[in-house]
Amino acid sequence: MSDDMDEILQVFYQECDEQLQELERGLAVLADGQSGQETINAVFRAVHSIKGGAASFGLDNLVRFAHVFESSLDGLRSGRVVPTPDVVKTFLKAMDVLSDLVTEAREGTPVDTARIAESRVELEAIISTGGAAPAAADIVPQDFVPVPLDFEPIPMDFEPVPVEFEPVPVAFEPVPVHFDFGDKTPVSGSGALVVTFRPHDALYERGDDARNMLNGLADLAAAVPGGSMTTTCDFSALPVFDAVEPLRSYLSWRVVLPSEVTEDAVAGVFDWVSDACDVTTTREETAAAAGSGNSAGLPHEGEPEAVLDRAGHESASVPLVHIANVEPAPPSVPSSVVPEPVASDGQGAAVGAVLPAGQAAAPAAPARKTEQQASIRVDLHRIDGLMDLVGELVIAQAAIESLSRRTDTAAVQELVQGISSMQSLTRDIQDAVMAVRAQPVRGVFQRMQRVVREACSMTKKDVVLTLEGEETEVDRTLVEKLSDPLTHMLRNAVDHGIEKVEDRLAAGKPAQGHILLSAGHRSGRILITIRDDGAGINRQRVLEIAIKRGIVAPDAQLTDDEINNLIFAPGFSTAATVSDLSGRGVGMDVVKQAILSLGGRVSIQSVQGEGTTFSLSLPLTLAVLDGMLIAAANSTMVIPISSVVEAMMIDQRDVYVLPDGGNVISIRGSCMPFIPLAAALGLAQKPSAEEIRESVILVVENESGSRAALVVDEIRDQTQVVIKSIEKNYRQIDGVSAATILGDGSVSLILDVSALIASTLGRTDRTADTRRVVVA
Length: 776
Prior knowledge:
Blueprint lengths: L2 H29 L5 H20 L3 H19 L6 H23 L5 H17 L63 E7 L1 H5 L4 H13 L6 E6 L17 E6 L5 H7 L7 E7 H7 L13 H8 L9 E6 L53 H25 L4 H29 E3 L1 H18 L3 E6 L4 E3 H6 L1 H15 L3 H6 L6 E10 L2 E8 L6 H10 L11 H5 L22 H11 L3 E7 L3 E9 L4 E9 L2 E6 L3 E6 L5 E3 L5 E5 L2 E7 H4 L8 H5 L2 E6 L5 E6 L1 E9 L3 H4 L6 E6 L5 E5 L1 H9 L9 E2 L4
Parallel strand pairs: 7-9, 14-23, 18-20
Antiparallel strand pairs: 1-3, 1-4, 2-3, 2-5, 6-8, 9-10, 10-12, 11-12, 13-14, 13-21, 15-19, 16-17, 16-24, 17-18, 19-20, 22-23
Helix pairs in contact: 1-2, 1-4, 2-3, 3-4, 3-5, 4-5, 11-12, 13-15, 15-19
């Protein structure tokens, strides 16, 4: 393909991703029992759009499967198929196959033909049975006794008599044939809506069928009480058989609908083929006045002779077939609707082709792997806002340039104001750019539905995944990197968290397990939660396995949280055998490393017998943050503004000493850990009483609501800083999440407030008796 075609193909793949998300949403709604017509139409449009685009690029495998999928959804749209749980499950399975076929076309990764054929058979069963179960075979009664028949053959003796004849030529004239099916009165009269349409060649090339439009028009007629429609098909353009080209369009139609049908409703039927079909709509009075001069050149009802006169009476002439009172199409669709398999063009072997016994299908030739181009879709108003800010920045720059040429005293003050204005504009532009980069987590969340379905299929469990907070927006870099950790955690929840059906029933739980995947903003970070209603973590078994594998010492005394965190240890697994889902001890370790690399944290809360909750805390962006510059042990550090609740001076009377030597401070009746920052980071010894009196307290809070009082030397400034990974350039440091470069070129550490609070709370017993000591 040319570069231009590659670019267009990439756009098609992006649209496929969007349509698959729309399909996932619609099927999820149907699975919840909400079968609204708009939802069904959205699902149908998604598959139809993918099929139409794939046909344009010659992606035969994708077109063939999408065609069968679309035909089954058409039954759902017309009401012939009821969206039962089994039918929706079949559609979800077909959606997974469709998604894999898109990936095959994009990346060249072949899809298992047996899996495609299995899903295709299930879809064709829905088409042929209207969603109902196949009719049962006749059953022979158990008391049936065959009756023997006794007879003797009687010989017959005869001789053949020869017959002589001579052929007599017969002359005949072709007679127009007029077929009229049905006994209803044809649609006619004042105001009847006349629809004429002639498909282009492109309509058939991309896998569409004129019958879809006729069925849609029939549905419009059936919706009118007592309504019917009259259809006239024009065969006059059809050549002799030897001259027929399979990909050419020769037929056209004239359809008369009841007057109650609106033009907008008809436009909806042709909405997705308007670029490949000539369509006109007129009312009966207009059509009658125009005579036979309609745009498609179609004869009116009762005029087959006119067609014969115009086409001539040669043997090649084809009579006009008139079909009256067409009812909505029956649920059965002949197999001939599905395009015949064609030779592979690099997209793999023809789907559904029957091979002789013992003969394996030839391996599909890998398609050319096109270069992946990252792209995002942004609301237009965000781009417009960014352009407005850039315009203001240009004006401010011109003003500063003009002021810089002046030498008077007033110009200096105006220059300072201009620089301040430009700083404000720069901040606004930065916020606008971050808003452009912000993407909802909806896309990655919806992909997790398939992960759960596949895990349930492998474990033979029934689990429902509920999504919340799908519209939560985060930086697109985070969205792209969330897929792998969430995949591992959800597989772990299905395999280890949710019990088997018999175990759940024995525990008094419903047979169907539930997992909640939610996202939301909390304290300037994004909090992603995975909660299941399974058996919870068996801490005794976890500790025994950890000791057996040498992860912890046999005499180790661990808290519940420390035991929970053992599942993140490399090589740890509670699975007895290695399977496709678990047993290798790498899944949760991968999760922890991935979250830490994003500047995040993962925590566990579990109640045995009730379930487990995993909480992922991540920064909203990996680019910049608003920070407060503070000083500790002559070092400048950055604390995220979103973590700071308030700042105050220390009152010695509010400081208490715990029996273990730790300190707490009481602020307005609430006690919280007292953390000298320099000592906590190992930069200095524990401060003296004099140093504490001259220090400043910053009350900080983590995403779970826990607070602590950080003791710092001073507050220097508030600014925005660019986040730089410290792990990639140095190593992980406890209590530090990242680093940044300040305006003077110096490097400053960005503090991890949650880690500081967690480490302090691990050493502090809030319920311990305290003795009041004034720091003197």
